[in-house]
Each structure stands twice: as structure tokens, then as C-alpha cells.
Amino acid sequence: MNRPTLNQIEHLIKDLVLPFYQVKRDMHLPIMPRRLETDAEHTWTLTFVACTLAPQIDPNLDLGLVSQFATVHDLVEVYAGDASTWDKDALKTKVEKETRALKIITEQFAYFPWIAETIHAYERKDTNEARYVWALDKFLSLVFRRLDGGKAFIKKGLTKKQFNTGLMVHRQKAHAHRGVAVLYEEIRKVFDD
User: Fold this and answer.
1) Pick from 38, 43, 75, 133: most CB atoms within 10 A?
2) What is the number of other CB atoms lying within 10 angstroms of the CB of residue 178?
């Protein structure tokens, strides 16, 4: 493997890293003033919390893999955009858009194979580390909503039934890792109460 050129590094930063800071998520940060979280903020939070909690939740997890998977878990959103759990139209085209986005990343950044290889490994969910990051991502979104006093759910006018129905798939994903499933059910109970 050849050393990357300055142009390749600049291309990476200009066309993948910096745009990641601009992808807005359907998640208000539980801080004032209220504003939407970016993918870069979300990714840093997930990476930090995933590595911090991993030794207590599942000491068999490889922290290096956890960190790598958390780092790339939403990278395709630079080209696909975010698809909110609550936006049914966006969810219909999510897989297609993300598949196209991964193809773009694979082609445009072929000289940095780690990026696409790591995204593919994460997307397969065939390791405990990938399932852990995937599940923890769902748990963290509820923690943020809880820390915000459920304002987003209240603003959407969600009933308890709509909340539970809307998060059925979310809950299944959180159960991809046994240790995270316990935490997820704990916070769901708080919302139910």
C-alpha cells in the first residue's frame, strides 16, 4: 500500500469528513439552546460511550473494533442523509440510498480501503462488536430523549401507543446485543411509567 498523497488526504477531509459535520439528525441535543445534533457529534458520542461502557457490559468485546464500528456506523449518511425513525417516507428508501452512498464512498475513497471495509464489516452485523454498537446506538437515542424530558415526543404529539408502535423495530435492533437489551428495556420502562 502506497503512502496517501496530500491531494487524497484533502479529498478525504473535504468530501467526507467536513460534510459529516453538516448532516443534521432528527435529534435535539439535551442542552440549551436547543439545536439539532450533527452526525459528527452523534458519532463521537456513540464512540466514546460505547468504549466506556463496553468493559462493564461485555468484557469480551474488542474495544478497537467497537471504536472502529462506532466511528463509521453513520458515515454513509454524508451521501444518503439521515432517515428518522419517525419519517416513514425516508425509511422506505433508506436501504437503497445507503447502498448507493456506500458505493460512492467505496469508489471515491478506494485509496483508503479501511473506510469501505469497516463499513461493510459493521453492516454485516456478524460480530458481537457490530451488534453491540448497533444496539447501543438505539439505546443512546432514548437516553438523549430522556435527558431532554421527552420534548421531541411531546412536540410530535405521540401517544403511548404511537411511541410503542413507532419504536418496535428500534427495540428489536437494541436487542441485537444482550447487555444493551437490558439497558434498553430499563429506559423503556422509565418512558412507560
Assistant:
1) 133
2) 13
> What's the pTM?
0.89
pLDDT at 153 over 90: no
Position 22 pLDDT exceeds 90: no
Let me know: does 97 contact 81? Beta carbons within 8 Å. Answer: yes
How does residue 127 score in pLDDT terms, banded at 50, 70 and 90?
Answer: very high
CA-CA-CA-CA torsion for 64, 66, 71, 72, nearest 10 degrees?
A: 110
Q: Which residues contact 140 (CB under 8 A, 6 or more apart)?
A: 45, 46, 49
Residues 6+ apart with CB under 8 A from 41: 29
